[in-house]
Amino acid sequence: MTITKNIIWILLISLMTACVPSSRFQSLKERTDKQISELKKENQKLKVANNELEYRVEKLDKKVVDLKNDTTTLGRKFRSLQEDYNKLERLYNLQKQKDASKQGRKSKEMKNLLKELQVLKDDLLKREDSLNVLQDNLREKEERLSALQNRLENKEDRLLQLESVLQRQDSIVATLRDKVSEALYGFEGEGLTVEQKDGKVYLSLEEKLLFESGSWQVESRGREAINKIAQVLEKNPEIRVMIEGHTDNVPYRGSGQVKDNWDLSVKRATSIVRIIINKSDVDPARLTAAGRSKYVPLATNDTAEGRRKNRRTEIILTPDLSELFDIIGQSE
């Protein structure tokens, strides 16, 4: 069965949820890739084994037919000899009455005939025993073939379930992206972008839309954008949210509770989390704040334009992946 590219995308989803760190994301991605690869290999092996069993069953069927034909032929020959024997016995009795001198010859012929009949009987019994053994082997092969076919069907069912879940997840993410884009339409051109990738919706807000340089206090225009996002989140309670603060590589020169770019990126992320919690009914358990400092740049920090792009806040929206995890767990 062909596994669509959606499988790869949603497996990446499964490890980049709001509550899953990047190390676990990579681990689960590798496990999922490995499982799908192993499912495909196992399916191929089972299909080969299935073909071999079908070929052997076909040969056994032919051999059984041949043995049945041989048995039928021997049976006819046996009956014919039995009839001959009966005739000879009658003739023997008649001849015995007429010519006692011929008794020895007839007796010898009778013994030879009986001996031949016994040989035929023994051969027929051996062939019947062989036929029974072959029939037992055939039943065993058929049972193994049935078990292999069931295993193939089960694995194909899991692959179909994975593909179906992936397609539904893509549809959910696409709808979510459209809702967010519609809600933030008025901020187009102000340093805000909405993008769908890796099974998630990424909102990137440049520093100029949210903060003054070196500050973690959200400006009024930025608050408006965050409130719009919170409204979408209220209507989609199954969505998990990761807020990540990013900076350029210019060292932070402030003092007090913020010591460096790490602190600044975290403070900016938590400032946005507080706005969402205070201005909406979004469950705080759905939110995660993280600071990435300068270590995940979008562009080079060697130019002013590159540094501007790197000073941003990303809001990552991830759909519920519990169904996908359940299917993956069944494959282990």
Based on the model shown, name its key terms.
alpha+beta; Helix Hairpins; 60s Ribosomal Protein L30, Chain: A; 332 residues; 5-stranded mixed beta sheet
Tell me what you see in this structure.
- The chain is α+β, with helices and mostly antiparallel strands.
- The chain has 2 domains: 5-173, Orthogonal Bundle (Helix Hairpins); 176-329, 2-Layer Sandwich (60s Ribosomal Protein L30, Chain: A), CATH 3.30.1330.60.
- It has 8 helices and 5 strands; from the N terminus they run αααββααβαβαβα.
- The protein has helices at residues 5-15, 22-98, 103-183, 207-210, 220-234, 261-279, 304-310, 322-331, and strands at residues 192-197, 200-206, 240-246, 287-291, 312-318.
- The chain has a 5-stranded mixed beta sheet with strand order 1-2-5-3-4.
- Helix 1 (5-15) crosses helix 3 (103-183) and helix 3 (103-183) packs antiparallel against helix 8 (322-331).
- The longest helix has 81 residues, at 103-183.
- The protein is rod-shaped.
- Residues 8-19 have low confidence and may be disordered.
Second-tier CATH architecture of the largest domain: Orthogonal Bundle
Question: What's the helix count?
Answer: 8
Structural class: alpha+beta
Morphology call: rod-shaped
| Largest pleated sheet | 5 strands, mixed
Using only C-alpha atoms, the radius of gyration works out to: 41 Å
Q: Helix amount, in percent?
A: 55-70%
The chain-level mean pLDDT equals 83
As laid out across the biggest beta sheet, the strand order is 1-2-5-3-4
The SSE order reads HHHEEHHEHEHEH
Kindly report the oligomeric state of this protein.
single chain
Give the N-terminus to C-terminus distance in angstroms. 19 Å
Quick one: how many beta strands? 5
Provide the domain count.
2
CATH-defined topology of the largest domain: Helix Hairpins
User: Residue ranges: pLDDT <50 for 5 or more in a row?
Assistant: 8-19
Kindly estimate the percentage of residues that lie in beta strands according to DSSP: 5-15%
